[in-house]
Amino acid sequence: MDYLATHELTQRLNDIVNNTIRARADDPFAYMAQQFLAIAQPPTISHVTVSNILDQTGSFRSLQADVYSWQPSSFVHLGRGVWPSATEGDNVAELCNLITSQLKLKPLKSESLSELDKTLSDLKEPNASVVIPAVSLAISRAVAHATRQDLYLFLHKRSNPEKLPNAVVSLPLVDIVKSNKLSFG
């Protein structure tokens, strides 16, 4: 009984069912799922992996960072960032362990993104500047995924908080096609 009272389960379930009935949604279960997602806790970072990527010739190096969260029965991939790397990055494994220890159990929500970026920028290890952009991009994608937003719109809102939330974000290829500047020949 304490568990029900602590988490207000009966009241919240009642509210969700009542909202679904009032909305008369075509798919009541999908509507209720959206309601549950709105009140759910954001996922937390369980670990970060970083790996070197080579092109076909083995000459061009990039770093790939992946952010994972632990869900009830397995790890869930939430975001990936790839960044070109000019250095070999000998200590990538050590940096990966250090980054994971710094970010573990941090919530993935847009309010905490500045804190996560500050944690990354405070790393003073050798080659950290090579790994940080890839991890930062992976975290941005993970937060956009966790908050159920398109990455471009999420980044636009982060960089322009004073703009209206329903502002149109331009996509370069769409703009080129619309303006007939695309030529095939």
TrEMBL record:
SUPFAM superfamilies: Enolase N-terminal domain-like. Residues 45-155 form the Enolase N-terminal domain. InterPro entries: Enolase-like_N (IPR029017), Enolase_N (IPR020811). It comes from the Eukaryota. This is Enolase N-terminal domain-containing protein. It comes from Beta vulgaris subsp. vulgaris (Beet).
